[in-house]
Write a structure and sequence with these properties.
heterodimer; A: 155 residues; alpha+beta; Arc Repressor Mutant, subunit A; Alpha-Beta Plaits; four-stranded antiparallel sheet; 38% helix; B: 147 residues
Chain lengths: 155, 147
């Protein structure tokens, strides 16, 4: 990462300044022009280093209190197509393929499912189960009990 | 949460403008004014409805490394292990989950060998094995939980 990008990242990773001209403020902090800040942010958005710019909600505060990590054992050859289908569901916030760790851990597809009640979350998990059908050999739900630490990612 | 708050949460989860007066531009689209949008965002942050407002960086694309780890910790040892794990600055978040693997945390490091070092240190300190589950593929969707 070039030093200008790094200064911009450091100046923005805690959030944008909540002032009418936030990019001008960041530019002053990073010692570059506002035009350069806009240009660098645009290019980081284009190449995926920035996923998006905007509001990051706390899903608990929005009432999503029943949050389950669901894990599925999917035949490797079907995992790509089915992973994409599960990831496209509106109530799935993250969907990843990860390695199995046999014999302890047979699951290779992870999907985070959010609901406002345990019933809602379970109905949604059922929707995933029927979407996957016989391609899922087994699955488990891991409800969160407690947040032990949440600081967010810091560079 | 009133209609304005809900509109902010639902419509500003991405696509915040890159221009000289972005709050004014975004406010315009929501049919409110700049000062009101700024004060509402401050209030949503203060009340914990939003955790941040700004760019969301992708650690891996930024050149860093990151992985999901799980441990199976006996109940009697759980608090001790949680304190040891949480003390590592590489641990970005850590959740207790109802499962035989009852502790799940994300490690984020500037480089890949940082991950291996952190795992080795946690195993040595706690006396328990860490299962490392790096992502192999992400099926990406924008996180857009409606308010």
């Amino acid at each position: 990462m070039n030093p200008v990008d790094e200064r911009i990242v450091r100046a923005t990773q805690g959030g944008l300044p909540l002032v009418p001209a936030p990019y001008a403020r960041i530019a002053r902090e990073a010692g570059v022009s506002e035009a350069e800040v806009l240009d660098r942010l645009e290019s980081m958005l284009a190449d995926g280093r920035i996923r998006r710019i905007g509001a990051v909600p706390n899903h608990y505060a929005l009432g999503y209190t029943a949050n389950a990590m669901t894990v599925w054992d999917i035949a490797d050859e079907a995992a790509g197509e089915l992973g994409a289908a599960v990831g496209a569901l509106a109530f799935v916030s993250h969907c990843y393929r990860r390695p199995r760790r046999l014999p302890d851990w047979p699951y290779n597809l992870f999907a985070m499912v959010h609901g406002k009640s345990k019933e809602e979350t379970e109905a949604r998990i059922e929707e995933i189960r029927s979407l996957l059908g016989a391609a899922s050999r087994r699955h488990e739900l891991l409800y969160s009990v407690r947040i032990l630490k949440k600081t967010g990612l810091r560079l | 949460m009133d209609e304005i708050d809900r509109a902010i949460v639902n419509r500003l989860q991405g696509g915040f403008p890159l221009c000289g007066r972005p709050f004014a531009a975004a406010a315009d689209e929501l049919g409110i004014d700049e000062a009101l949008l700024l004060s509402r965002i401050k209030s949503l942050l203060k009340r914990g409805v939003l955790t941040r407002f700004g760019p969301m960086y992708d650690v891996e694309r930024m050149g860093g490394a990151f992985t999901l780890c799980a441990m199976s910790v006996p109940a009697a040892d759980f608090e001790r292990v949680a304190a040891l794990v949480d003390a590592h600055p590489e641990v970005a978040h850590n959740y207790e989950r109802a499962h035989r693997f009852n502790m799940w945390f994300v490690l984020a490091c500037p480089s890949k060998d940082g991950i291996e070092k952190a795992i080795a240190a946690i195993e040595a300190e706690t006396g328990h094995r860490v299962m490392n589950l790096p992502r192999e593929h992400e099926y990406f969707v924008e996180l857009r939980l409606p308010a």
